[in-house]
From TrEMBL:
Residues 172-199 form a coiled coil. One of its GO terms (cellular component) is outer membrane-bounded periplasmic space. It is found in: Cell envelope. Residues 69-327 form the Fe/B12 periplasmic-binding domain. Belongs to the bacterial solute-binding protein 8 family. One of its GO terms (biological process) is iron coordination entity transport. It comes from the Bacteria. This is Fe/B12 periplasmic-binding domain-containing protein.
């Protein structure tokens, strides 16, 4: 009888142990399954952020999220990259860099803004390429080398275009917070200047001088943001809207008699012998309200002609207009 009870107890103990082991195995399998599912989810999430899709005027491109090297043939984009504090190896048109972007003078050189060196760009092995109007004819060739993003800034939509371009860079380099802060600051500056121009009846004329010749720019032009966004009243509301402005003579300037003349001297950045100071120093210009009241304001051509479209450059452009009204 005792032997029989011993056998029963032994069998019970063994069955209990087997049951416990079975439960542990099941629990282990469940934990393993959950871990596998979580790992799979993490992998899928990582995959979702492994690239960024950018829709731009010329098409849609997919850019790897971890960009190490970028070819930048638009100084506005280079400005944005700098202003957002992005750490990336740059190749650009080094020979004509604006002075305020001189920190990039040791970057890899890939030709000029008008004639990119396709071989140098290929050898640089970029992860992304940024271009604008000067290089648009090269778009298809550049697209064969790396994802290529076309950017632009138009006079009548300038600020929206700048914000769009900031967005491209912020998406690719995960700088959304910094981008939002920069845009908010730009908006504040714009509102400040709009309040000033709304209170003023002074008429503004925008001039570009080029080694002796003079052109004017109005609403819808490359410098049209002064009127279209900042609200400056135009000395002439019928200026032709064109890339190179409307060619005028000194009699025209005297006839329009602007209260403020904003001058961009192209000669200072592309070369020549006749600077704006010499060209505009004549009786007809000196008889205008702007000259009499010391309101002929020289704008930095590095910012206004070569660059523009960036965070730093756009901020400075808005400040320049604000200061012109304070003189």
């Amino acid at each position: 009888m005792k032997k029989f009870l011993y056998i029963i107890l032994s069998v019970g103990l063994i069955m209990g142990l087997l049951g416990a082991c079975s439960k542990k195995e099941v629990a282990s399998n469940i934990d393993s399954s959950n871990t596998s599912q979580e790992a799979s989810k993490d992998t899928n999430d990582s995959a979702a952020y492994a690239s960024v899709t950018i829709e731009h005027i010329k098409g849609t491109v997919t850019v790897a999220a971890d960009v190490k090297k970028a070819v930048v043939l638009d100084y506005g984009i280079l400005d944005i990259i700098d202003a957002l504090g992005i750490d990336v190896e740059i190749a650009t048109a080094v020979s004509s860099l604006p002075a305020y972007l001189s920190k990039f003078e040791n970057a890899s050189s890939v030709g000029s803004l008008k004639e990119p060196d396709l071989e140098a760009i290929f050898e640089f092995e970029p992860d992304v390429i940024f271009i604008s109007g000067r290089q648009q004819d090269y778009y298809d060739q550049l697209l064969e080398i790396a994802p290529t993003i076309y950017v632009e800034t138009n006079g009548d939509t300038y600020l929206d275009d700048v914000k769009t371009n900031i967005g491209y860079v912020a998406q690719i380099f995960s700088k959304e917070n910094e981008a939002e802060e920069a845009i908010n600051k730009l908006n504040s500056l714009v509102e400040e200047v709009q309040a000033i121009t709304a209170e003023s009846n002074e008429k503004v004329l925008i001039l570009l001088t080029n080694d002796g010749s003079v052109s004017v720019y109005g609403s819808g032009s490359r410098f049209g943001m002064i009127h279209d966004i900042l609200g400056a009243k135009a000395a002439d509301e019928n200026i032709e809207s064109s890339t190179h402005g409307q060619s005028v003579n000194f009699e025209y300037i005297a006839d329009k008699n602007p209260d403020i003349i904003l001058v961009i001297d192209r000669t200072l950045v592309v070369g020549g012998t006749n600077t704006a100071n010499a060209v505009l120093d004549n009786d007809l210009v000196n008889g205008t309200n702007a000259a009499i009241n010391n309101r002929i304001v020289s704008l930095n051509p590095d910012i206004w002609y070569l660059s523009g479209g960036g965070i730093t450059s756009t901020s400075q452009m808005i400040i320049d207009v604000r200061e012109a009204y304070k003189n």
